[in-house]
Specification:
This protein is globular. 49% of the residues lie in helices and 7% in strands. The chain has a domain at 12-190: 3-Layer(aba) Sandwich (Rossmann fold). Strands 3-2-1-4 form a four-stranded parallel sheet, with helices on both faces. The protein is an alpha/beta fold. The longest helix is centred in the middle third of the chain and has 23 residues, at 108-130.
Amino acid sequence: MSSLVPRLPAHAAETIERFLRAHARAPASGVIVGLSGGIDSALVARLARDALGEERVMGLLLPDARFPPELLKETEQYADELGIEHRTIFIDPIEAAVRAALPELEDRVDLGNVKARSRMILNYAVARPLHRLVAGTGNKSELLLGYFTKYGDGGVDLLPLGDLYKTEVRALAAELQLPRPIRERAPTAGLWEGQTDEDELGIRYEELDQILFGLEQLLREDEIAERTGFPKAQVHEVAERVSKSRHKRRMPPIPKLSLRTVGLDWRE
């Protein structure tokens, strides 16, 4: 058995809740969480509710016309069970406006990015008047792979799950006894019909996280392959994806012209 399986820290929930309380304080009145019906957003909403209280958490459901009605109903019911306020806003008018302005936009990835960025716009449009922070739902596996839309679902104020691999997210969701349908649903960004994370990535999270954990430990690719039993080509492909997506995890580059430069040596 591989020795590179990430293990959920015993203090994960407590640490994340402390993190949320530390950051979502005055002048912020609370947080907004984009609820998608998936495990990551459900877990963030639960942790935020536990940390801040139900009155300081809002769930924002941002479906399009293709969003399954039964999943929408289930997600709204989950927000009700948490006791948090929630709103549902369909994003189709924003998508339609972009497509009208750019009729040549046909690639499904480009159109998927429009969906993700439309949701980011609405998250902040709702959050600012309420003095809320936008709590993102990205996890460590997604961040390392760049498996998110820049200035879309990557456009947030906080990332409570950002240091948990997807397999650890699942473990924490089980520990907190989130509803079984949410925990067992195939992960998807919902950017086009039939999309699932693992089909698009070409690897199961159980395997992916072992490779990423090996890279975190600064192991060589051949060492990771030997310890996991995965093909060297697969390990290399994951490592390349981490390397090529580093721009998504950094501020935009700025040329050095003065004593202290934002993103380089201006320390906050």
